[in-house]
Write a structure and sequence with these properties.
Helix content is 34%, strand content 6%. The protein is mainly alpha-helical and 71 residues long. Strands 1-2 form a two-stranded antiparallel ribbon. The protein is globular.
């Protein structure tokens, strides 16, 4: 839904990946607990190499989407 609100209440373009994955802790580069709760795309620990790999893949999707987007 273009111009609609996503689950976090922020407006989002249709098909755009959520930007919340870019908000991370300085210490380990991972999102906080609130980001992880209720997720259906990841069932592992919220810390460690698996979590970092998952977050990295989502971040790369965000960067790729906006890098390839035409105005």
């Amino acid at each position: 839904q273009r111009g609609g609100a996503n689950a976090a209440g922020a407006s989002a373009e249709e098909g755009a990946p959520a930007l919340a994955v870019l908000v991370v802790r300085e210490g380990d580069g991972l999102p906080g607990q609130g980001w992880w709760t209720g997720r259906t795309d990841y069932q592992g620990e919220w810390i460690g190499p698996s979590a970092q790999a998952h977050v990295h893949s989502l971040q790369e999707a965000v960067f790729a989407y906006w890098r390839n987007r035409r105005p």
